[in-house]
Amino acid sequence: MSSIGRASVLIGAGTIASRVSGVLRTIVLVAAIGSQSRAGDAFAVANQLPNNIYAIISTGLLTAVVVPQIVKAAAHADGGQAFISKLFTLGTVGLLGATALAMIAAPLLVQVYASKFTGDQLALSTAFAYWCLPQIFFYGLYALLGEILNARRVFGPYTWAPIVNNVVSIAGFGAFILLFGGPQENVGAWTPSMITLLAATATGGIVVQTVVLMFFWRRAGLTLRPDFRWKGVGLRHISRLAGWTFLMVVAGQLAGIVQSNVLSGASGNDPAIFASQNAWLLFMLPYSIIVLSIGTPYFTQLSEHAAAGRDDEVRADIARSIRTLGFFIVAATAALAVAAVPASRIFTNGPEEALAAAPVLWSFLVCLVPLAVLFVIQRTFYAYNDTRTPFFFTLLQCALVAGGALAAGAVIDRSELAAGVALTQSFASIVQVIVATILLRRRLSGIGTGSWLPALGRFALAAIPAAAAGWGTLLLLGGPEGWMTSSVGAGIAGAAVLGIVVLAVYIGILALFRTPELAPALALGRRFLPKR
């Protein structure tokens, strides 16, 4: 457990630093292009295209397939060196091919994701896309390198490297503002120089991030060399596993395309694509810091236990990780819900935009706790080399996401469309985690539900009065339209104050009732504090 705690702290500290610098990056980007504008949505679509491919590579293939396979290969006489070299060579070739095809299809890709854009908005987004799509190769290479390091229990570099990307982006976006002013919301005012500086900065940060990761191979005890002799790498076995995950992520991308097209109809003065992305970024702050930092080391350990056939230890891993994640993620949900308006002000250009964007964040937060549970459940299937079952419960979720987005687009006014689409996505995710939990429980003849489900209930009961205390504090300090939304800095300060109040009351209530999960959770939290 101590090794997991140390790994969690290392990943968590890096994730916090990465996310904080990522917030600063987005603040500068919003200052350059606006938060609810046609130009902002045009860049959001173009810069999201390589991220969508990255999602296929990272979530679809690497997490589900590569980590368990490398854990198994570690038992080979060479410690997995030959397997990793073959895998790395194969991945690099595939990434180059995927990047080339995407560059050729850039105009079509933009049209697919934003069919309701105006003509000049489509042209601007396509110009951005030509600069952004090379990110596919570097995102994929970064993900491949990072997951290999994670599988070798070298957790830090993969988490800390994005900070360099954010620093490069902040500098480039800042230079854009100095040269051209901001926010540049008028689509027709964009010149080739403006397009190049903004989009090339976004891609340059990813390039530097990937290069930095290459300096840590010696710590993993690895020596990589090009190896095109792919026979013997287990391609047939890997492709059989990857086939289901590939279909699963394709289904997710199709649902995302539906969402993006629905939201493109609201582009202009209302929350749309860029505003939804920024709300999702706020939503992902606690998910990334808490779920990924604690869950990633558990997944490596869980994979080892599953590979050895120790099902009892897998069940214990599931229950322990969900209880630990739940303690933190429930508190984060309550705090972010109370602070939604000042938090939204961080990524908007005024109080009115913050009030319009906050419902989008609230709608996403409905599924924050269920997604934390899903992280553990889904990766347990992966640890048993079962990618077929996650495909089916994810396919159900994707169908609900797409159907919900279309329904929202048909009945909801454009000013509330982004919130409606986010809410349907949350509903779909809740259904997904319920189905996934039932299926895993049947497979393993129990997953300790009687242990972790009541714990989540206790956390939720403590979060209700904690949230009430936070909301009362917000009203006493001027309400959602008070000083906390007067500027970006005020939004940060206000969100911090409200978060501290909610967390203090939450911990106090759990301590009063002597909740058993409190002591180990606080011990893990103290690891993040600086030593004397």
From TrEMBL:
Keywords: Cell membrane, Cell shape, Membrane, Peptidoglycan synthesis, Transmembrane, Transmembrane helix
Pfam families registered for this protein in UniProt: MurJ (PF03023)
Keyword Zinc annotated: no
Bilayer-spanning residue ranges: 7-33, 53-75, 87-110, 122-145, 157-182, 194-217, 238-259, 279-300, 321-343, 355-377, 389-412, 418-440, 452-477, 489-513
Keyword Transmembrane in annotation: yes
Entry's Gene Ontology cellular component terms: plasma membrane
InterPro entries in the record: Lipid_II_flippase_MurJ/MviN (IPR051050), MurJ (IPR004268)
Annotated compartments: Cell membrane
Membrane topology note: Multi-pass membrane protein
Top-level taxonomic group: Bacteria
One of the GO biological process terms: regulation of cell shape
Any one GO MF annotation of this record: lipid-linked peptidoglycan transporter activity
Principal subcellular localisation of the protein: membrane
Name recorded for this polypeptide: Murein biosynthesis integral membrane protein MurJ
Organism, scientific name: Microbacterium testaceum
Classification of source organism: Bacteria, Bacillati, Actinomycetota, Actinomycetes, Micrococcales
